[in-house]
């Protein structure tokens, strides 16, 4: 029973990579918020949820305090392993 309780607290985070056209198609009707929370946006002048996968974006998101520590860690690991994720040697 204790193991089941501990397992219920686990978070599984992942990174997904889409090309621009696929992203636009899949997320064309995306909402800003729902019962699970709000979509993270970045950019002081014109906030957007279409975030480029750059060091600057990751730094801005992690410094903002809007991400859970596990989510920030997931982004940092994705950046560290970006060449593999993006299929580049």
Characterise this structure.
With 89 residues, the chain is mainly α. The protein is 44% helix and 4% strand. The chain has a two-stranded antiparallel ribbon with strand order 1-2. The longest helix is centred in the last third of the chain and has 12 residues, at 69-80. The protein starts with a helix and ends with a helix.
Tags for this model:
single chain; 89 residues; mainly alpha; 5 helices; 2 strands; 44% helix
Largest sheet, in brief, is:
2 strands, antiparallel
User: Spans with pLDDT under 50 lasting ≥5 residues?
Assistant: none
- Our count of helices gives 5
Structural class: mainly alpha
Mean pLDDT: 80
Distance between the termini: 45 Å
Overall 3D shape: globular
SSE pattern, N- to C-terminal: HHEEHHH
Oligomer: single chain
Give the percentage of residues in beta strands. under 5%
**Spatial sequence of strands, sheet with the most strands:** 1-2
Task: Give the proportion of residues in helices.
Answer: 40-55%
> What is the total tally of β strands?
2
* CA-atom Rg in angstroms: 15 Å
């Amino acid at each position: 029973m204790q193991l089941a309780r501990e397992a219920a607290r686990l978070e599984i985070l992942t990174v997904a990579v889409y090309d621009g056209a696929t992203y636009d198609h899949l997320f064309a009707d995306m909402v800003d918020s729902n019962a699970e929370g709000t979509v993270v946006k970045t950019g002081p002048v014109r906030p957007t949820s279409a975030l480029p996968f750059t060091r600057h974006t990751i730094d801005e998101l992690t410094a903002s305090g809007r991400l859970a520590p596990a989510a920030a860690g997931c982004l940092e690991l994705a950046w560290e392993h970006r060449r593999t994720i993006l299929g580049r040697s």
